[in-house]
Amino acid sequence: MEDQSLKPIRCKAAVCRAASEPLIVEEIVVDPPKAYEIRIKIICTSLCHTDVTLWHKVDPAFPRILGHEAYGVVESVGENVEGFAAGDTVVPTFMGQCDSCASCAAEWTNQCTAVPFTMGPGMRRDGTTRFWDGEGKPLSDTVAVTSFSQYTVVDVNQVVKVDPAVPPKIACLLGCCGGTGVGAAWRLAKVQPGSSVVVFGLGSVGLAVVQGAKMCGATKIIGKEFGVTDFVNPSQLGDKSVSEVINAMTDGGADYSFECIGISSVMTEAGRGKTIILGVEKDSQPLCLPSFEFLFGKCVMGSLFGGAKPKTDIPILAEKCMNKELELEKLVTHEVGLTEINTAFDLLLQGKSLRCIIWMDK
């Protein structure tokens, strides 16, 4: 039997009622957790480009609550939840890890098949919502995390316990941008000491890739938009292509290339070694590469959460942040309260912000 003492909670959330319209901070109702679920009080969340993409999309899932990069405290747990208790400090993630299926046991994938990832609304196990507006009408979630609400309900497979000593805004970034970027260099590409790396798109994810590459010992890191260890300005190359310049700088091509923008033509500007694609192609254009390049060892890899396993790797990354091997806090350029959440959207759309932390009780 589920704990009947658990009751719905009334709280504030930023609700998206229609595509591209300002979010409305309103009172909602959050259901108690069902079996294998945890209800979390969100301390802070942040705005990711994926949220903006979903915000722009004309989608029958509206009205919905966006948000998927966050840090919080366990408020209550449902039946069959083990290893978590009220008061635990946690990071919810869009990736699950059950540690019992064959995929979770494998080293080559981070995609749990017991409770698989899905972009569609609804909790992972039963497809229903835990959120209701003031009139009792359902509100859709976002990747089963839904962090633009003061309280949320998340599957136990998608919750990672973190040391309470980790600053909230650092822990928050580990749930998406930090885990994705650092993981892509560390877990997926397995960047080797002394290697050369080029990063296309130096937003928050791209800069997290840079930190991951430095952590792994890369000695030459090239940025397409502004300097990292080396500088390339595409508007000042004359008749040369970006790939020609990068090949000259890296003695034939970068060992690792990371595409963090989502443009197929940029994906082809990569080097001779591994190309890791973190950006989703905005216009659904195919990626076309000459087949002979593969004969010489070229490898193209897709990346979901940087190949990291959340329950295994987020605590490791948190420790690396605490001992300053990683400095993800430098990605935070702005901080606002929940009532100012539309300011966070404006800052990101205007190119003025990398990551904006949104404090839920302010």
TrEMBL record:
Annotated keywords:
Metal-binding, NAD, Oxidoreductase, Zinc
Q: Which cofactor does it need?
A: Zn(2+)
Does the keyword field hold RNA-binding?
A: no
**Boundaries of every Enoyl reductase (ER) domain copy:** 18-354
SMART domains (UniProt xref): PKS_ER
InterPro entries referenced in this protein's UniProt entry, alphabetically: ADH-like_C, ADH-like_N, ADH_Zn_CS, ER, GroES-like_sf, NAD(P)-bd_dom_sf
The lineage's top-level taxon is Eukaryota
Family (UniProt):
Belongs to the zinc-containing alcohol dehydrogenase family. Class-III subfamily.
> SUPFAM superfamilies, from UniProt?
GroES-like, NAD(P)-binding Rossmann-fold domains
Q: Which PANTHER family match?
A: ALCOHOL DEHYDROGENASE (PTHR43880), OS03G0189600 PROTEIN (PTHR43880:SF44)
Please provide, alphabetically and separated by semicolons, the GO molecular function terms listed in this UniProt record: alcohol dehydrogenase (NAD+) activity; S-(hydroxymethyl)glutathione dehydrogenase [NAD(P)+] activity; zinc ion binding
Record organism: Oryza barthii
What GO biological process terms are annotated to this protein in UniProt?
A: formaldehyde catabolic process; phenylpropanoid biosynthetic process
What's the name of the protein? Enoyl reductase (ER) domain-containing protein
Cellular component GO terms, alphabetical: cytosol
Recorded catalytic reaction(s): these are: a primary alcohol + NAD(+) = an aldehyde + NADH + H(+); a secondary alcohol + NAD(+) = a ketone + NADH + H(+)
Describe the protein's quaternary organization and the partners it interacts with: Homodimer.
Q: Where in the cell is it found?
A: Cytoplasm
